[in-house]
Amino acid sequence: MTRIPVLLYHPVTDDPPAWIAEFAVTPRQFASHLDAIADSGRTPLTVGALTGHLAAGTPLPPRPVVLTFDDGFADLAGPTAEALAARALPATAYLTTGALAPGRPCLLPPAPMMTLAQAPRLEEHGLEIGAHTVSHPQLDTLRPAALRRELADPKAELEDLLGHEVRHLAYPHGYNSPAVRRAARAAGYASAVAVRHALSSPADEPFRIARLIVRRTHTTADVRAWLAGTGARTAPYPDSLPTLGWRLYRRTRALLKGPEFAG
Fold it and tell me: Is the pLDDT score of 166 beyond 80?
């Protein structure tokens, strides 16, 4: 089976806010990861290119790898995009629109973020842009109307800004369910990525593509193992009983307390 590492990054910085520090890597770590990817013999793809091959049934290029970035931290539109472009590495960036415009309601804690106006700059550096909701909630705990807004509004706003269709979605913290996946499809997306801490594959589900979340504790050796198709299980696979139980608990808590940050 072809194993496809889909890597998930957050900020690339030496000084992240405490709430995201676990999921931040330093510029030096990031450069080492990119060099490992460039040297791996894998073919870098955007999520759109990957899912396009899978939807059309056309053969994938040799040993694909996909880089993704969630939220839209400040480094993304500057040194991170530049580091990718310098190595001719495409990537997909999923933007949380409510976090990128001052004064808008958003569940993400404070952090240095890029602005929505910088989104076209990402495309100039070879990044594909997808949506990551408005406020970063736990989508699988929302009522239907709120879920539709969180999916439709960022898609429409990004499309107006960029002048073309935005077809790809990332679920905040990977939280999804059958109802969320149906809503994503109904909102007009062609794919959605989850987390799952697993390698993807040609048999993976297009509306919960597995990703490997890169933590600050992961070494370049860990990244090389993923690039070799080892070090993690391979999707697709069914949700475990603990995952289903955790979803039920979070839904119950949301009924009592309202929408909560997915993190």
Answer: yes
Q: What pLDDT was estimated at residue 131?
A: 98
**What proportion of the chain, given as a percentage, has pLDDT over 70?**
100
- Given a cut of 80, whether residue 169 has pLDDT beyond it is yes
Q: Which of 72, 58, 67, 66 is nearest to 20 (CA)?
A: 72
Residue 180 phi, psi dihedral angles, 5° rounding: -65, -40
CA torsion through residues 84, 87, 232, 20, sign:
negative
Concatenating the DSSP letter of every residue in 9-75 gives E--B-SS--GGGGGG-B-HHHHHHHHHHHHHTT-EEE-HHHHHHHHHHTPPPPSSEEEEEEEE-BGG
Rounded CA-CA distance 171/83 in Å is 26
What is the rounded radius of gyration, in angstroms, for the C-alpha atoms of the chain?
17
pLDDT of residue 261: 82
C-alpha atoms less than 13 angstroms from C-alpha of 27 in its C-beta half-sphere: 11
- Which of helix, strand or coil describes residue 93? strand
Residue-wise pLDDT for 32-86, tens only, equals: 999 999 999 999 999 999 999 988 889 999 999 999 999 999 999 999 999 999 9
**Which single residue is written with the structure tokens 């933007």?**
95
Quick one: average pLDDT of 83-102? Answer: 96
Other C-beta atoms closer than 10 Å to the C-beta of 10 total: 24
Q: In whole angstroms, what is the distance from residue 156 CA to residue 169 CA?
A: 12
Question: What stretch of H or E contains 118?
Answer: none
Prediction pTM value: 0.95
| Phi, psi angles (nearest 5°) of residue 194 | -110, -145
Distance CA 97, CA 72 (A): 9
